[in-house]
Amino acid sequence: MSLLPPRARRPAVGLVVLCAAVVAVGAVLYHRERRAGALDNAVDDWLFTIFGRFRVLLYQLLHVADLPIVGTVLAVVVVTALLRARPDIAALAAIGPAVAIGLTEVVLKPLVQRRYNNWLSYPSGHTVGMLSTCTVLAVIVLGAGLTLALRVAVGVLLLAVSVIVVLALLVYGFHYFTDTVAGVALSVGIVLLVALVVDLVTVTRPIVRTPALV
């Protein structure tokens, strides 16, 4: 069993390329910028007009994207996958978000040097942490053999969590809109790329399965 169904691999490759292009274009446009762009001003003002009244609530909900919570969710996925003899899922959960977060904090933020107030902001770290985790869960659900209704329900839940985190970051004034766009693109692109690579490796070297622990 692979992480991505065969029919999903070609669209996944296209999406990885698109995500890389979005991050790269944003990095060029906002290199060393210390102010919002026209798109940021338009979207941020619009969102604050609609959701500004929920600012405090959104700030509380933003804690679901804190690193300890994200790390705990991923650790549970890794352990469960190993117990169920799915090292491919464990590898995806361990490597995908780690690469996305590391690329954000160690490479892109220092390289792009876009600032929101006094901190480096491109891409948004909170967005990357939550979206990479949600993308891992979405890939798992996609290949889990669940009913269509259940897959849709889980997908809607993951989308809702992602939207809430992005809204909180924008309405509370932690990031520009384009910082979060880059965070989403980076997260989805990296996790899908890791899934494609893991599938390639496991197809070349079939996974030896052992009976799942009961």
Describe it.
This protein is mainly α. The protein has one domain. Helices cover 74% and strands 2% of the residues. The chain has eight helices and two strands, in the order αααααββααα. It has a two-stranded antiparallel sheet with strand order 1-2. Strand 1 and strand 2 form a beta hairpin. Helix 1 runs antiparallel to helix 8, helix 4 packs antiparallel against helix 5 and helix 5 runs antiparallel to helix 6. The longest helix is centred in the last third of the chain and has 28 residues. The protein is globular, with a radius of gyration of 18 Å. The protein starts with 5 loop residues before the first helix and ends in a 10-residue tail after the last helix.
Describe the SSE topology.
Elements lengths: L5 H24 L8 H14 L3 H7 L5 H17 L3 H26 L2 E2 L2 E2 L4 H18 L5 H24 L5 H28 L10
Antiparallel strand pairs: 1-2
Helix pairs in contact: 1-8, 3-7, 4-5, 4-6, 5-6, 5-8, 6-7, 6-8
Protein name: Phosphatase PAP2 family protein
Pfam family, one: PAP2
Keywords: Membrane, Transmembrane, Transmembrane helix
